[in-house]
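@channel sequence for tomorrow's demo:
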Amino acid sequence: MKKKKDVLTMSWLKYLIKSWRNVLRRFFGCSRVLRVLDLEDCDLSQADSSLKYLGNLHHLRYLGLCHTGISQLPEEIGNLQFLQTLDVTLNKISRLPSSVVQLKKLMCLYIDRSTTVPNGIGNLACLEQLLLLGIYDSTVNIIEELGQLTELRQLHIGLDEWNDKLLGLQKMQETRIRVDPGQRNIGGLDAWVAPRHLRVLRTIRSCWFSTLPAWVNPSLLLDLIGLSIAVRELHQVDLEILGRLPALRSLYLEVDNKNLGILRGFVVVGGAFPCLVRCYFQQFVWPVVFQHGAMPRLGELWFLFYLWDGSLDLGLGNLPSMQYVRAALLCEGFSKEEVEQANAALTHAAEMHPNHPRHDIYLYD
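structure tokens (generated this afternoon):
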């Protein structure tokens, strides 16, 4: 009886799948004036063959196939000459079809890092957003073609090797660069002239600058609101330069903890970072002290320091808008009593703040 029930269940499933395919085929065939189609979270894993009928939707402007279980796009996608947005993220698509480069009006392309794009991507002259492009084969010409996308404003990219040819996109407003751990330096960016209207730059995963690059210039980067940067060597003057960025709201600053002899104590002077809301200081060996008038809008402060001999008065009371503090101290080489004193001093500073901010303090050996 159970075996018969299983057979009936499988037959019913096959019928549903076949019916779903027929529905898709009829829908794609009869909706030729459709402008927007968003199928996010619909299970289309059994409908790959029916997706070719998408090519009949000649007036389509937006196509959302995020998290639909598909493994490929049909070549017929190239028929959508009016398409402006294509989202195929959270799928198992290894490569976009070559016909994608025929989408001359495409402005936004959202893919997974594991999805490769075909040669000819430089033909997409209207493209403004490209997220997230993964380039892990040095023989591919994709990087050179990116330089042809002169309208590109937002680029999220993952690389296994830095390439200076990425530096010519002068309309860029947001750039997120992820370099795999094997690539230890992106010195090519040191000579970069940043786009004047750059709003966000985030370099993560082993993207190290030797020093604070010259293009971090407060008189040029008037629109920069988000900066994530890691430098081998940092000096007080560098921190003051960052503090003069007029629109900066979020800062993630990491230093190379191997250069222990280079680093000294830092002071965030009054008037610095006038718009900063979130601040992350990572791997600092010596303390950062906040003077009165510094970071007047700062709400969140995250920092990771090495414990040091000396005062733990960081001037947290001089941060009038602070709502949350997260501190991590690396305490290797210090006695249990010294570690407890450090924990007590930081806890007291947070508790005595006029705003009584939430605080988390972590101690690591």
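heads up for whoever presents: Residues 239-365 form one domain.
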